[in-house]
Write a structure and sequence with these properties.
Blueprint lengths: L5 E7 L3 H6 L2 H8 L3 E5 L5 H4 L5 E2 L2 E6 L9 E5 L5 E4 L12 E7 L4 E8 L7 H24 L1 E7 L23 H12 L3 E2 H5 L10 E2 L11 E2 L2 E5 L1 H4 L2 E6 L11 E5 L4
Length: 266
């Protein structure tokens, strides 16, 4: 790779089969990432067999949703994990395929790379309530994890945290993704010492920060976007981030990949 930085990408694929037809694998090969966390695979194990177990030379680990063509997350890595944790909530959300954690433990440190897909509440009240249940379970899970190990959580959080994180904040104050309890959840997580890595590197950006655009109208063409995709990290890892890049040169899905280079190794 020519340097010692660890290159980590997060991307909501909006369907791995769709993204593969739009050139995501050649782009990954060109980027030479160490790891990519993906969300919304929208496939099951038989769909992946012989096609997507690896991507750009990286080995994948997955959690699939029980419902076909829905959700699903994965982590593709160049490095062999010491342990793989599939799921975090057997009572409800593991059936939806929302959490994969790869652990890279040595005698000197314990580190995890996590791919997660937070629920969207935009389809109706039932899903908004499910989103709140997910947030209520994820917060203590991350706090317990933080007490034991360092991590980077790469996730489509489906929340724009602050006004500068979406184009039309005034028009979305009562919409899922920018509701006060959702934003307060992110605020509380950061107050507990988790680092919003992008904002650590780019505290003031607005138009440049978006990672998702609605397929309606001319949202993408007019850059009417939201920042929904995050690297959330413990300080030991997050504060060693050196650069970020939100790639918009090609459109693999309705989300853009966000890549961060970190000054650490697994």
């Amino acid at each position: 790779m020519g340097n010692s930085l660890f290159k980590l990408t997060s991307l909501n694929l909006n369907g791995i089969r769709s993204a593969s037809t739009k050139g995501v694998e050649p782009w990954l090969e060109e980027q030479a990432v160490d790891c990519i966390c993906v969300q919304e695979i929208k496939a099951q194990a038989p769909d992946m067999a012989g096609k997507f177990e690896t991507l750009a030379g990286l080995k994948g680990y997955f959690q699939f949703a029980e419902k076909k063509g829905y959700s699903g997350v994965g982590v593709y890595t160049r490095h062999e994990p010491s342990d793989v944790v599939i799921g975090f909530d057997p009572e409800e959300f593991d059936a939806e395929g929302r959490y994969v954690e790869l652990r890279f433990d040595t005698p000197k440190h314990k580190r995890s790379l996590i791919s997660a897909y937070f629920p969207s509440g935009s389809s109706g009240e039932d899903r908004q309530l499910a989103k709140y249940r997910f947030l209520a379970k994820m917060a203590p899970h991350l706090q317990a994890l933080k007490a034991q190990r360092d991590f980077v959580l790469c996730a489509d959080v489906n929340i724009a945290h602050q006004e500068e994180d979406l184009k039309n904040w005034k028009g979305n104050l009562k919409n899922s993704g920018f509701l006060p309890p959702e934003r307060a959840w992110v605020t509380a997580l950061l107050a507990q010492g988790v680092v919003d890595v992008y904002r650590h590197l780019q505290p003031d950006t607005t138009d440049a920060c978006y990672t998702w655009w609605s397929n309606r109208g001319q949202a993408y063409a007019n850059n009417v976007g939201w920042r929904l995709d995050y690297h959330l990290a413990t300080p030991t890892l997050g504060l060693l981030a050196k650069s970020e890049a939100i790639y918009k040169g090609q459109k693999f899905s309705d989300h853009a990949p966000i890549t961060v280079e970190y000054d650490w190794a697994l």
